[in-house]
Amino acid sequence: MCATCGCSDEAGVRVIDPESHGHGHGHDDGHHHLPPEPTRTVLLERDLLAANDLLAEGNRGWLAERRIHAVNLMSSPGSGKTTLLERTIRDQGGRFPMSVVEGDQETVFDAHRIKATGCRVIQVNTGAGCHLDADMLAKALRALDPPVRSTVFIENVGNLVCPALFDLGEGTRAVIMSVTEGADKPLKYPHMFRTADVVLLNKIDLLPYVDFDIDAFLAALTQVNPRSRVLKMSATAGEGLEAWYGWLREHAGS
Ligand SMILES: Nc1nc2c(ncn2[C@@H]2O[C@H](COP(=O)(O)OP(=O)(O)OP(=O)(O)O)[C@@H](O)[C@H]2O)c(=O)[nH]1
Ligand SMILES: [Mg+2]
């Protein structure tokens, strides 16, 4: 269950290796779950996040032992997470080893896109859940078995709210925002932007066609997170990607 919106649940969560599952649709587990009792919500939230934090520490240790850099990639649906990963793997896959954990509520669409690049990938379907949690990542990492000194990208469920609350034990957090989403998003979704190590402003090729005030966006971001790096890019046109690749190289194996 999610601490903020009460979305659930573990029964709907599936860890899928697309190497052994060809079809693109998940299935209903057949269970119908009632919303939590309001009086118990606060206690449940605290317990849930504490339990998650413990598992996240376990992941952090597991990753550190192997000198693996895990990047938690978060954004609204459709900001360009998978497109950026496809491009990054194609451009940089030969320079340092990478693998991917894909998080979506349903389908293995994104895992198949990553698999088409030749990169190792594990899909996690969260069912009714709107974020990945540390337990899901622990299971996915065991299935993925990434090599030492590699980079693991974790594409979180498209959602600017709940994923920010759940520590996965990742090394860094990258938040993608596209110029079509509006310059006010850091102020409206501060939790997401506050914990970002790097903010990727994507789809800048669309700037001539949309009303997006970059200065206002940077001012809003500075207000909630003055320490974050900002990289402007177009995952489709390729503009600005060298800085992203440089950032990844800086963190690889660290
Ligand atoms: N113009 C433009 N389109 C882009 C860019 N990056 C991604 N897109 C398009 O945006 C759409 C969504 O991209 P995805 O990579 O699937 O987005 P996502 O964040 O992985 O989406 P979810 O997994 O559903 O949350 C696709 O049609 C992409 O081609 C970009 O830099 N410029
Ligand atoms: Mg995606």
How would you sum up this structure in a few lines?
The protein is 34% helix and 17% strand. The protein has 8 helices and 8 strands, in the order E-H-E-H-E-H-E-H-E-E-H-H-E-H-E-H.
Walkthrough of the structure:
The chain has 254 residues and is α/β, with parallel strands linked by helices. The chain has one domain (36-251): Rossmann fold (3-Layer(aba) Sandwich). Helix content is 34%, strand content 17%. It contains 8 helices and 8 strands. The chain has helices at residues 41-65, 81-92, 109-115, 134-144, 185-188, 190-194, 214-224, 241-251, and strands spanning 14-16, 69-74, 98-104, 120-125, 151-155, 172-178, 198-202, 229-232. Helix 7 links the parallel strand 7 (198-202) and strand 8. Helix 1 packs parallel to helix 4 (134-144). The radius of gyration is 18 Å and the shape is globular. It binds guanosine-5'-triphosphate and magnesium ion (MG). The site of magnesium ion has 4 residues, from helix 2. Guanosine-5'-triphosphate binds next to helix 2.
